[in-house]
Write a structure and sequence with these properties.
binds pyridoxal-5'-phosphate
Length: 365
């Protein structure tokens, strides 16, 4: 089976883990600081705060922005649940914007109508590694004096022609969970060009501690361990190669997959240079999606629906009375299917994937 995700770990990571084990310092040592410095260098000098995972990175960033009970956060209706849990856990209310069918990203045109006197933050997601139109979202935010927090958990290595590399300006969060383009098992990063915000995130990350056993606010234990950081530093060295490999596979699919029964994801445009965390097909119906998935499984290609439910229609969201009608997100949840695009695919493997998708005919047409 040609899998969707496969961790690439080698001698460098092995060596790094041994180095940490031998140092006797598994947490709060130099590895985490070095990882932060290296990410900062890569992202043009922004503040970088390494944390235990991407979900907690969102929590800390929102908390540092002052989000709490009574506030509203406008976000996409189509993402992983980790985008929205922090909003609810902080006592605020997620307001779901419908998505654009073609990109599956938040529909920028629908955001303004959702803004109220309670809105504090716009939280877009660069889904599948494809950046949203940040310049447009930032323009709306500044018109209404709102903060923007980018969920870039899937978008390390992506960029935007107007604003540069994702994470190099504004405030964003990344995830380094095992399935991400670069990974350390569990890990997250907050990046920001706002020094004061960075200081608040640092405080919140470690129990609100201002000096040893002296605490200025109620924080979290959200630190990254040195084991995670040491692996991540090696993974960061491979980011350009990984991104180029994924983009090359995506370009190959754009050229080589020919099938009128499905739509390929958009390629680059001026506001969006994707790192292709996923290469996601769009089918005409749920029956077709299920049919194609059965076909790919039969032909030893793993495919997955990211995501089979819209955020706005999960039982937990409906039970909390937070559900919203988001027709495009509901429609997409029935018709999306991601195929392997990872950089470690061999030429034969990616040709096989393209041939299998091109050779599929809907059985119910
Ligand atoms: C879009 C999105 N948001 C948030 C998260 C949460 O990140 P983590 O799993 O590191 O907590 C993920 C990844 O899993 C994600 O893909």
């Amino acid at each position: 089976m040609i899998g969707i995700s496969k961790l690439s770990l080698g001698a460098g990571e092995e060596e790094a883990v041994l180095r940490v084990v031998r140092s006797g310092q598994l947490a709060m040592g130099l590895e985490t600081q070095d990882a932060e410095t290296e990410f900062s260098k890569r992202l043009g000098g922004v503040e970088c705060i390494a944390v235990s995972n991407g979900t907690v990175a969102i929590t800390l960033a929102l908390a540092a922005m002052g989000v709490g009970p009574g506030d509203e956060v406008i976000t996409t209706s189509f993402s992983f649940i980790g985008t929205v849990e922090p909003i609810i856990q902080l006592g605020a209310t997620p307001i779901f914007a419908d998505v654009d069918l073609r990109s599956a990203n938040i529909g920028v045109d629908g955001i303004e109508a959702l803004i109220t006197s309670r809105t504090k933050v716009i939280l877009p997601v660069h889904l599948y590694g494809r950046p949203v139109d940040l310049a447009a979202i930032r323009a709306i935010a500044s018109k209404y004096n709102l903060a923007v927090l980018e969920d870039a958990c899937q978008a390390i290595g992506a960029s935007d022609a107007n604003t540069g590399g994702i994470g190099s300006s504004g405030t964003a969060v990344f995830s380094f969970y095992g399935s991400k383009n670069i990974a350390c098992g569990e890990g997250g990063l907050v990046t920001t060009d706002d020094r004061q915000l960075a200081e608040r995130v640092r405080l919140l990350r470690s129990h609100g501690s201002i000096e040893t056993y002296r605490h200025a606010l109620v924080g979290y234990n959200a630190r990254m361990t040195d084991l995670q950081a040491a692996i991540l530093r090696i993974q960061l060295e491979s980011l350009d190669r990984v991104t180029a490999g994924r983009r090359s596979n995506a370009a190959y699919y754009h050229e080589s997959i020919h099938n009128d029964a499905l739509f390929l994801p958009p390629g680059d445009d001026v506001t969006s240079v994707s790192c292709f965390h996923q290469f996601t097909l769009r089918l005409r119906s749920k029956a077709d999606r299920d049919d194609l998935q059965a076909w790919t499984t039969e032909h030893e290609v793993e495919t997955r629906a990211y995501y089979p439910y819209a955020l706005s229609s999960h039982p937990v969201i409906e039970d909390l009375g937070l559900g919203a009608r988001c027709d495009n997100a509901d429609a997409l949840s029935n018709v999306v299917l991601s195929i392997p695009v990872r950089e470690s695919l061999s030429d034969d493997e990616r040709k096989h994937v393209a041939d299998v998708i091109s050779g599929w005919e809907p059985s119910n047409s």
